[in-house]
Structure formats: C-alpha cells, structure tokens
C-alpha cells in the first residue's frame, strides 16, 4: 500500500527545525552584525517561500482586532525564537524596537516597514526622538533585518490577510525592555506589556484525523479535567489535565520536540497549556481548531469513558478468541455446591482489598500465569479470572489459555459488578497478592511465555540494542518500562525505567504511552511478564515493542520509588509548614484555613480535618471565599502540586500562604488523623472520573450502564468509521454470534 505524504504539521516542523539550526550556526560562526544578518534573511526567505507549509487555516486572523502572533519555535536554552505574524489588512504597529536582532520574511501578503533610528542620547527615561532612515515593503521573496536598537513600523497594505515570519535573537517573552512610540513624531515612549499574547498554530479536525492515521510520532493531549474528558473525547487522545500538567507530561511525552496536539472543549484552556509547555522546551505544538466541539461539527465522533482503546481491545479479544466465560449465578451455584474452583482477582492489590469474590486470591495483571500455576490444586480444577468489569478479566483468562494451562480457564462475566448485580455480596480482603511463584512454576511459566512470545512475534533486545535506542531517544521517543509490581520495582530496577505493572499498562495504554508510534522496551527480572505484556501490545498494533533480554547486572540497578519528573519544580520558592506546626496552628481559632488541591476521589478518601477542597483553576479568586483567617495552608497528596500552585498565586501576599511539607501523606505519617467524605468545598467536585461503584446514588443503574457501554464499544467505533484508528481492528467487524 502506498504511504500517504506526511501531514503539513510534520513537514512544517521539520522545515522550521532545519531553518533554526541553520540560523543558529550562522550566529555562532559570524556573530550578530548587519553583515551576518544577510544570510539569516536568506535562510528565513527560503522557509517563507514554502507557503504550502503555512496554510491560512493554521494561522487564523481575528474577527476583530489587528492580528495574532503565533509561536513556531522557541529555543529556551539558546534564546532563538520564530513566530508567524498573521495580520488583517490595515494592521499597524507604531515605531518600536526589539532589543535583540530580528529578521522578517513574507509567506503571503504585504507588510510595509518604515525604518527609524533614535536621535536622542537616552538620558531621560520615557523620552526620546526618532528620525526616519528608510522604508521597505516585505512581500514574498523579500525580507528585512533589524539590529537591537533599530526601530520600525509595520503596516499590512495588501488586500488580503498577511502572514510573515519573524525570527528574533531572544523570544518576545524574554524581552522586557522593548519600547514603542505612539507616532514617529512622539517625544515620549512606553514599554510593551511584560506578557505578550502569543498564540499557537491550530490544526483543522480533518488534518488531525490524517495525523492520527499516519505513522508519524505524535501525541493528542486533552487538557480538560478527567471528569470532562470522560464525558466526550477523541478516541486516541490522552487525558492530561492542565491542573496537573507539570507533574505528568514529562513522563507521558518525554521527547520535547514530539508533535503535540492540544485540545479542550472549545479552545479556552489550550493556549494556557501551550504557554506552560513552551516554558519547559516543548516546541512542536498545535491546537485542535474549535476544540472538541469543532471536531464534532466536522462530523467526527467522540467517546465517553476512560481507556477506550484498551477497553475496545478487550472486547475484540473476547470475540476473536471466544474466551470462555461463566456468569455470576453459575459461579455462585458451583461454589455453593462445593465444586473445586480457583477464583483469581487480577486487579491491583488495593482494588482487591476494597471488595472481591469470596475465597478469591489476588494475582494482578501479567503476574497471573506464574502465580496461578502454584495456586491450583490439580489440572482439573477450573480457574475463574475476574476484575471489576470486563477488560482485565478477559485478558487475564486469555493469557492463561494462550499459555497452555491445562486447567479450564474462564472469565467471570462482567466481573465484580456482574457479581453484585446478580445479588451476591463482595467481601473485603486484607490478604496480600499471591506469594512469589515457586521455581517449578517459574520454569513452566517461562516455557509458556516463550511460546506466547514466538506466536506473538515478540522482539528481544540486548544491551547494545538498548544503548542504541537510548542514543536515538532525542529523535525517536523511547519508553523503558518495568512491568513488575511496584514493590518489586522499588527493591531494585534498571536505571531510567518507569514503573508500570504490565496489567495496568494494558488496561490504560493511552495514559501511559501517550506518544503514538513510540518505541517501547519492556523489562522485568526473568522475561516472563515482559514477554506476555509485549505480546499483547503487539496484538494491539503498537509498531515497535521489545523485551530487554539481557540479564540483570547490579551496576545497572537503583532502588526506591520511581523518580518524579515534575517540570520546573526547582523554580518554585514557597514557604513551608510541617504537619506538627500546622496541627498547633489549627488549635488557634480563625488562625488557619487548609485548602486541599487533591482530586475529588483523593480528597474524599482522606484529607486534613476541616480542609477545603479546591481546584487549581482560578484559585487566587477562589481563596477569597474563605472565612476570615491569618494563614492559608495549601496541601496536595504529596505537596508537589501545592508548591507549584502556591508559587503562581496572584494578588495573594506571600506571607499569607504556606505549603504543607510533604502534603497530606506527611500529615498522616506524622500520626495525625485524616477525615474522609465530602467535607467542605470551594469548587465543584467534578474533576475526576468516578467508576460506577464509586458514585453516589443508584450504583446498580450506573453499573448496568457502564457494562452496556463497554459491550457496545465495538459497535460504536465501527459505526463512526473509527476502526481505522485502532490497528488491532479488522476492516470487517466480527460477528457477535
């Protein structure tokens, strides 16, 4: 099949990168003077001459006002910046300087420049005089260059909107000393605003769809809160709420020049998200034109719920493989009759503890195969695998079957939700996961996983291969993932590896692996779980999945939890208060109000007594709703988000806000009690997606609706024509008969 040409956003990104590399070389080799600016002009004109890379639809002009400035490139380290200035006819900018060198070239339209020099000696702040020294109309094929102290006016003189490329020695956001005169004759000047309104190019829905269908690495990040995301989102989008973006995006999108498309409901949040990402070196950004509403108006589908690709995969596997199942009533009857049955809950231990089937053992995710081999008393005893709903149970049972287990393996239809809906109670369990497999079970599981790997065409990588991929990670996104349990990871893991237990990775691929087309290298301690996980990822259609087959070496290992990658954490200077000091302050009436920035579910599970729930959005104004107080203490689960938010508050005196050191976890660790439940709220508690059994009200109806939604996913995807977005789906839908 003939491959499609690269989408315009990718072609533009490549061309912009090459242009800025060339300009950077010129500056390094020749310095900055008028002579050196001539080759910079030529380089910029070459880029501007590729007008097909700059469709008008990507750089819209305002319905009212003069125009917009769009960021194309911002080298945070070296300082170079490139913008596209879109102007309406008649747009005029009075005489101004840049305090850095600049060059301007036309993509389309005419922009007339009048050049000035300053004639006063600058001795009187706010006062000055200009003299006209020339003029030039910058139209396609022409460019102008300016030194730091040059002044010029610009006016769009063409009948159609114009687009001009402006390159600067430093970004506009880092040029606080720029000044302008109201008119060329003015004897006074003013300073430009400190935060210019820089926008990000947009991508029309049809072009985004083409990008999603391409093999080009990219990420689609929805920056709304998770609760809104779960109401309606693009099929392959990842949830990356603006409220916690600094804490999540570095792990989700590790390569800073990855093409990223940001979206929200209508386009209100994405410019703020783009501005934040640019500060930390993300340089290849687009916004979905019109947001989710624009996507729907273009005739494309949105999807409710969370982890839709993974859920759809589970439904597809059950259809394709005809995975055997058992209903809740059938299982209950057999257990009541005393039939030997091994019931396995394949969810993480924390979920298992909250409620499971009577007598179930806990073998999370891809730990299932080696663990179950030790748990069944004989090869005749059926093994029933369940999760809360459907997907993880289906994948777990099918893993046992693919591994050639001699026992009959079945999935409990609809999991614990189906069990409850049939009128059977769950039981809490404080039992830990199944013990580490015996040597005999490991050997059997190793043989079974090797067979799975061969059938699943799993590729293996040695140390040299991994080193080569790591060396290329600046050009090709690499996820190095340890698929063992979190506890095992913390006892020793390969440096640089993320901790994502295999079952959870398969359950929420779009959350963990936000970059489509990335390389994925999986690691564990014996190859069993990594191979099983890789085989499933291959079947899901991930193009480059590898298992690191090299043996462990002590020199490569480190211990402890996965290091948090929080953007700009070292930049934040805040005032801290520890848990004991906060407890003492709370004894003084009216002295302190605690504001918790956790998600809604986290807040309900446990918060500092009396703490207010609040969203990060508009917190400066939200705090005005608090009762009279001497001090506000911000907290979050570990204090990280609270410290970020404290540093950005506007209109709040620094001595009025402190951050709880170590967050709510440190409060609890210090022996102070937590309060659960709804508590008090300054913001609507609708930020997070709630599972059906976490919701208030009629949980039975919520569970039935959820299960019907999941079972109907494949029909929904095929009806929208979105099967082509999921590589594992065949063009012809499988029959449910």
Strand content: 15-25%
- Largest sheet at a glance? 6 strands, mixed
Count of strand segments: 35
Number of domains: 5
Over all CA atoms, what is the radius of gyration?
29 Å
Shape: globular
- Give the termini distance in whole angstroms: 32 Å
- State the oligomer: single chain
Q: Please report the first level of CATH classification, the CATH class of the largest domain.
A: Mainly Beta
The largest sheet has its strands arranged as 7-4-9-2-1-12
CATH architecture label of the largest domain: Sandwich
Structural class: alpha/beta
Uncertain spans, ≥5 residues at pLDDT below 50? none
Averaged pLDDT, please? 93
Number of helices: 26
CATH fold label of the largest domain: Jelly Rolls
Quick one: CATH superfamily of the largest domain? Jelly Rolls
Q: Provide the helix percentage.
A: 25-40%
What is the gist of this entry?
The chain is of the alpha/beta class and 737 residues long. It has 26 helices and 35 strands.
Give a quick set of tags describing it.
single chain, 737 residues, alpha/beta, Jelly Rolls, Oxidized Rhodanese, domain 1, 5 domains, 6-stranded mixed sheet, 6-stranded parallel sheet, 26 helices, 33% helix
Plain-language structure description:
By secondary structure, the protein is of the alpha/beta class. It has 5 domains: 8-199, Sandwich (Jelly Rolls); 202-306, Oxidized Rhodanese, domain 1 (3-Layer(aba) Sandwich), CATH 3.40.250.10; 321-442, Oxidized Rhodanese, domain 1; 457-558, Oxidized Rhodanese, domain 1 (3-Layer(aba) Sandwich), CATH 3.40.250.10; 576-681, 3-Layer(aba) Sandwich (Oxidized Rhodanese, domain 1). It is 33% helix and 20% strand. The chain contains 26 helices and 35 strands. It has a 6-stranded mixed β-sheet, with helices on both faces. Strand 21 (383-386), helix 12 (391-402) and strand 22 (409-412) form a beta-alpha-beta unit. Helix 11 packs across helix 14 and helix 14 packs parallel to helix 19 (528-540). The protein is globular. The mean pLDDT is 93.
């Amino acid at each position: 099949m003939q491959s499609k040409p690269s989408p315009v956003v990718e072609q533009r990104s490549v061309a912009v990168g090459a242009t800025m590399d060339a300009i950077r070389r010129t500056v390094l080799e020749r310095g900055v003077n008028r002579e050196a600016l001539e080759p910079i002009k030529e380089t910029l004109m070459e880029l501007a001459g590729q007008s097909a890379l700059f469709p008008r639809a990507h750089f819209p002009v305002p319905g009212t006002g003069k125009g917009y400035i769009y960021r194309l490139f911002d080298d945070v380290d070296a300082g170079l910046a490139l913008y596209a200035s879109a102007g309406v006819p008649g747009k005029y900018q009075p005489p101004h300087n840049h305090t850095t060198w600049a060059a301007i070239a036309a993509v389309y339209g005419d922009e007339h420049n009048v050049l000035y020099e300053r004639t006063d000696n600058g001795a009187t702040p706010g006062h000055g005089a200009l003299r006209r020294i020339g003029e030039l109309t910058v139209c396609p094929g022409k460019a102008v260059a300016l030194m730091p102290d040059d002044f010029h006016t610009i006016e769009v003189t063409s009948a159609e909107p114009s687009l001009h490329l402006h390159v600067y020695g430093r970004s506009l956001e880092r040029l606080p000393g720029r000044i302008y005169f109201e008119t060329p004759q003015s004897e006074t000047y003013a300073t430009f605003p400190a935060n210019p309104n820089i926008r990000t190019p947009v991508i029309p829905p049809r072009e985004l769809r083409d990008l999603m269908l391409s093999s080009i690495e990219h990420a689609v990040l929805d920056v709304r809160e998770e609760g809104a995301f779960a109401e309606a989102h693009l099929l392959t989008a990842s949830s990356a709420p603006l409220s916690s973006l600094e804490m999540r995006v570095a792990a989700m999108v590790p390569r800073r020049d990855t093409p990223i498309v940001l979206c929200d409901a209508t386009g209100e949040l994405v410019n703020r998200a783009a501005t934040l990402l640019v500060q930390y070196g993300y340089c290849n950004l687009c916004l979905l034109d019109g947001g989710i509403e624009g996507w729907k108006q273009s005739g494309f589908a949105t999807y409710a719920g969370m982890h839709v690709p993974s859920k759809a995969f589970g439904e597809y596997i059950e259809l394709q493989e005809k995975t055997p199942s058992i209903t809740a009533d059938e299982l209950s009857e057999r257990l009541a009759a005393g039939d030997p049955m091994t019931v396995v809950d394949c969810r993480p231990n924390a979920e298992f503890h909250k409620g499971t089937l009577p007598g179930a053992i806990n073998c999370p995710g891809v730990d299932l195969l080696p663990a179950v081999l030790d748990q069944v008393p004989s090869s005749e005893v059926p093994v029933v695998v369940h999760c809360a709903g459907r997907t993880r149970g289906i994948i777990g049972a099918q893993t046992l079957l693919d591994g050639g287990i001699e026992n009959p393996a079945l999935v409990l239809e609809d999991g614990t939700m189906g069990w409850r809906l049939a009128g059977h109670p769950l039981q809490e369990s404080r039992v830990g996961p199944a013990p580490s497999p015996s040597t005999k079970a490991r050997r059997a599981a190793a043989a079974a996983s090797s067979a799975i790997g061969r059938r699943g065409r799993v590729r293996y990588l040695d140390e040299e291969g991994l080193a080569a991929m790591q060396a290329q990670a600046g050009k090709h996104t690499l996820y190095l993932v340890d698929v063992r349990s979190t506890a095992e990871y913390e006892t020793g893991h390969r440096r640089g590896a993320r901790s994502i237990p295999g079952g959870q990775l398969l359950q929420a691929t779009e959350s963990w692996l936000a970059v489509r087309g990335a390389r994925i290298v999986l690691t564990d301690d014996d190859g069993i779980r990594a191979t099983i996980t890789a085989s499933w990822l291959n079947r899901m259609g991930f193009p480059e999945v590898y298992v690191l087959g090299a043996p462990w070496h002590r020199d490569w290992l480190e211990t402890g939890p996965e290091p948090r990658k929080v953007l700009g954490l070292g930049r934040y200077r805040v005032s801290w208060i520890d848990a004991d000091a906060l407890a003492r302050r709370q004894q003084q009436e009216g002295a302190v109000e605690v504001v918790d920035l956790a998600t809604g579910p986290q807040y309900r599970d446990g918060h500092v007594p009396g703490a207010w729930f609040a969203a990060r959005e508009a917190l400066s104004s939200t705090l005005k709703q608090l009762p009279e107080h001497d001090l506000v203490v911000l907290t979050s689960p570990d204090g990280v988000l609270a410290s970020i938010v404290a540093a950005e508050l506007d209109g709040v005196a620094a001595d009025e806000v402190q951050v709880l050191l170590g967050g709510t976890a440190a409060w609890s660790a210090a022996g102070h009690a937590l309060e659960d439940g709804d508590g008090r709220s300054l913001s609507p508690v609708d930020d997070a997606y709630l599972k059906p059994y976490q919701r208030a009200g009629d949980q039975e109806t919520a569970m039935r609706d959820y299960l019907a939604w999941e079972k109907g996913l494949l029909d929904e995807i095929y009806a929208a024509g979105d099967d082509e977005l999921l590589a594992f789906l065949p063009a012809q839908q499988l029959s449910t008969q």
